[in-house]
Amino acid sequence: MSAAPQDGRPLGLLAELTYRCPLRCAYCSNPVDPGASAGELAFAEWCRVLDEARALGVLQVHLSGGEPLVRRDLPGIVAHAHRIGLYTSLITGGQALSAARLAALTAAGLDHVQLSVQDARAAEADAIAGRPVHARKLAAAALVVRAGLPLTVNAVLHRANIGSVPALVALAEHLRADRLELANAQYYGWALLNRRALLPTREQADAAEAAVRAARRRLGDGRPEIVYVPADLHDDVPKPCMQGWGARQLTVAPDGKVLPCPAAAQISGLAFLTVRQAPLEEIWFRSPAFNRFRGTDWMREPCRSCPRRELDHGGCRCQAFQLTGDAAATDPVCRLSPHHALVTGIVRDAGERPAEPVPRRSPPCGLNSCRAPHSS
Ligand code: SF4
Ligand code: FES
């Protein structure tokens, strides 16, 4: 086995505090199985996880979900993270971000907010979210800016909204966002289930990239900075997923399962431990699941002798598993993969079909016990 890269320690922790969420986005990357979110970690357990992460070298914690604001103990979690020196980022849909809640989070030491929007057009955004949420999101963005916190606006791009890139840039400017993240949907969880309706055509993907280039030229060094995550399946060189398996980041799922990426739990044959079973340091350095795809020794041809193997790490293990049933296969996005025709077929199919209605994640929250604020 190759050693873990850098000094072998992670920089970032994705803390998935809950899978509960009042929105019903079809592109959600949460697991489709609602039972996966049973037994959420309690407040004291999250504080211990943060302590262990900090001791392991983590510098940033991304507080995510689901919708992390459905947890009433969120300010306490932020305060603990802040106290031990972690940079804290809240990844939220914003529906429940009232002035009072933001004030509590700011007082607790919150450093950054990433707010999702579903589209720049209100009706279309509400249709994608499955609830009337767009106006509340705009109000939440204004609160964040007024509080003096850095704001990233995030939009997941898919077939029904990828034509809105210029309007999304204009919206982010209007909201005075520091960053705009335009991220093509990643096809895991609900998004994988709904891929037929969500996948853009090649022409749409090319037009979006051109719109991003034009916006960057126009904005120059001004705000917002635009981060673009390209349409992975439309490429023929795979993404360096997670910058390598078990290399820089780790995810702790709501039930405490420790994962190299948010989608990894689906890979059969890998036993992922929870924070209730072992300390983070032991899981990170010594668990078989974290070591399985570290470095390059696990690779087969064509990756094993490829000059790009240290650059893209053979692509995404979850995508390889989803498309071929073998997580050790070369990511089929790669043109050198013997399975590349699977991907070109998926993209061609998107171009040959008329647009379909976008389905939604359902049932709402993925949990009957959700106590998220549903009233609009
Ligand atoms: Fe990357 Fe493997 Fe393809 Fe080379 S063969 S480009 S390492 S996925
Ligand atoms: Fe799991 Fe890429 S999403 S390795």
UniProtKB/TrEMBL annotation:
It catalyses: [PQQ precursor protein] + S-adenosyl-L-methionine = E-Y cross-linked-[PQQ precursor protein] + 5'-deoxyadenosine + L-methionine + H(+). Catalyzes the cross-linking of a glutamate residue and a tyrosine residue in the PqqA protein as part of the biosynthesis of pyrroloquinoline quinone (PQQ). Binds 1 [4Fe-4S] cluster. The cluster is coordinated with 3 cysteines and an exchangeable S-adenosyl-L-methionine. Pathway: Cofactor biosynthesis; pyrroloquinoline quinone biosynthesis. Belongs to the radical SAM superfamily. PqqE family. This is PqqA peptide cyclase. Keywords: 4Fe-4S, Iron, Iron-sulfur, Metal-binding, Oxidoreductase, PQQ biosynthesis, S-adenosyl-L-methionine. Its cofactor is [4Fe-4S] cluster. It is an enzyme of class 1 (oxidoreductase). Its EC number is 1.21.98.4. GO terms for biological process: molybdopterin cofactor biosynthetic process; pyrroloquinoline quinone biosynthetic process. Residues 7-223 form the Radical SAM core domain. [4Fe-4S] cluster binds at C21, C25, C28. SMART domains: Elp3 (SM00729). The lineage of its organism: Bacteria, Bacillati, Actinomycetota, Actinomycetes, Kitasatosporales. Interacts with PqqD. The interaction is necessary for activity of PqqE. GO terms for molecular function: 4 iron, 4 sulfur cluster binding; cyclase activity; iron ion binding; oxidoreductase activity; S-adenosyl-L-methionine binding.
